[in-house]
Design a protein that fits this description.
single chain; mainly alpha; Amino acid/polyamine transporter I; 17 helices; transmembrane; AminoAcid_Transporter; L-amino acid transmembrane transporter activity
């Protein structure tokens, strides 16, 4: 397939609305329907709770404003991989692709799909945690075995389904994305409207508030606030995803910046409205015991039928987010293969469907594997801590490229430059530094996994150089 003006082989089939739908649909997923309960375990005061969501939105907007400049300069398949490569070279770009392969994309698929499955089982009236398949029977310690729950089984099936859909063409994936995005925005606005207009009924009391096993239960202070921000930023994550399909967007110099900025601003506004309704219905000290908080709030407002309706809407919403993630994530592996830094078979464009079929099939396998072994909180934390160093590198790329390559065409320049990029970088340093101190073991493991890609890079580089003609 011939390359276009920007060196892209994939066909450009996504218009402005579809580009915005990719961002909004990829962002509004499991996070806003589950993360408030996780955040409330670290923050027990109303002011800091609201502040966390406001700051998270501002950080996401700062990132989107910066990525809009990068997307206009490099409207290529691969997003962050391309931005980092252009500014810092192949090694850090490869490490991002490696992290996507072994941590980020599988963790995202797992967390999103599990949430969609849990809400689906709630609609059907079944316990999502019930065992579907006992792989290894548990011993005296109930956590010692390996049991696949109903939620995990359905989540794995969902990953396979969206993978097949996107394998068959980005237009079909875009239709699902556009419809599911419209439905989820309508559902959120409906919940907000009812929540602000009606007096909620009393929710049944919670007998016991669960405590996250991965850190101490005490709350308060900057350290706890920083841990809560991990969950907040998971909810906002997705604002960068439209860059991954930059090579398939029509008129990208205009549409990519619009999608980055307009889509992110819409998400931030919706999230703050939803949080207002959550807090109006559920006392903050009761929030940690309600992981499916959106359905609980709807039940308080409309009775059992409200819980069923919202649970169904959330299931559809998160399924759409999973579809968006499957649209965008495999493009990173495709871009790596284009640079001959990964299996060349993944750079093949399907002759009939015009999609990176091999990269999509690889993503299906990785997602199903991850969803079988971890829970939502672990998957979400692992994703956020793994990807934010590369967000920081991408934002720093704007600063570097302004100095090194001022001749590049920039259809959009970052508003508030250089203060907006600097603010994003400071927020990232705080987030990662706090997590490294409070969760040193998990942080070290993530770093080790990412750095394990260094020898892999040199092996691929050596293989490529040997096979290249003189």
């Amino acid at each position: 397939m011939a390359k276009d003006h920007w060196g892209e082989r994939l066909p450009r089939r996504l218009g402005t609305f579809s580009a915005i739908a990719v961002l909004v649909g990829s962002t509004i997923g499991s996070g806003i329907f589950r993360s408030p309960a996780v955040v409330a375990q670290d923050i027990n005061a109303l002011g800091p709770f609201v502040l966390a969501w406001v700051l998270g939105g501002l950080v996401a907007l700062a990132g989107a404003l910066t990525f809009a400049e990068l997307g206009g300069m490099f409207p290529r398949t691969g997003g962050i991989y391309v931005y980092v490569r252009e500014a810092f070279g192949e090694l850090p770009a490869f490490l991002f692709g490696w992290a996507e392969l072994v941590i980020l994309r599988p963790a995202a698929y797992g967390a999103i799909a599990v949430t969609s499955a849990e809400y689906t089982w709630r609609v059907l009236g079944h316990d999502a945690g019930r065992a579907l398949w006992v792989v290894i029977p548990p011993g005296p310690d109930p956590d010692s075995g390996l049991v696949i729950s109903l939620a995990q089984g359905l989540a794995a099936l969902m990953i396979v389904v969206v993978g097949i859909v996107n394998f068959r063409g980005i237009r079909l994936g875009a239709i699902i994305q556009n419809v599911s995005t419209a439905l989820k925005v309508a559902a959120i606005l409906g919940l907000v409207g009812v929540g602000l207009a009606m007096v909620p009924n009393a929710l049944p009391p919670i007998a016991e508030l669960p405590v996250r096993p991965d850190h101490a239960p005490e709350v308060g202070g900057l350290a706890a606030f920083g841990l809560a921000m991990v969950a907040v930023l998971w909810a906002y994550d997705g604002w960068s995803d439209v860059g991954f399909v930059g090579g398939e967007i029509k008129d990208p110099a205009r549409n990519l910046p619009r999608a980055f900025i307009g889509g992110t601003a819409l998400v931030v506004g919706l999230y703050l409205l939803v949080d207002m309704v959550y807090l109006r219905v559920v006392p903050l000290d009761q929030m940690p015991g309600r992981p499916l908080i959106a359905a609980d709030v709807a039940e308080a407002l409309l009775g059992p039928i409200g819980a069923v309706l919202v649970a169904g809407a959330v299931a559809i919403s998160t399924f759409g987010t999973l579809n968006g993630s499957m649209m965008t994530g495999p493009r990173v592996f495709f871009a790596m293969a284009e640079d001959d830094l990964f299996f060349r078979s993944l750079a093949k464009v399907h002759p009939k469907h015009g999609t990176p079929g091999g990269a999509i099939l690889l993503s299906i396998v990785l997602g199903v594997g991850f969803v079988s072994f971890q829970g939502f909180a672990e998957l979400a934390d692992q994703f956020v801590i793994g990807i934010w160093p590369f967000y920081a590198l991408s934002v720093a790329a704007v600063l570097v490229l302004r100095r090194r390559r001022p001749e590049l065409e920039r259809p959009y320049k970052t508003w508030g430059y250089p203060w907006v990029p600097f603010a994003f970088l400071l927020a990232t340093m705080y987030l990662l530094g706090n997590y490294a101190i409070r969760e040193s073991g998990k942080f070290a493991l993530d770093v080790a996994i990412v750095l394990s890609g260094v020898p892999v890079f040199w092996l691929w580089r050596r293989r490529r150089d040997r096979s290249s003609p003189l």
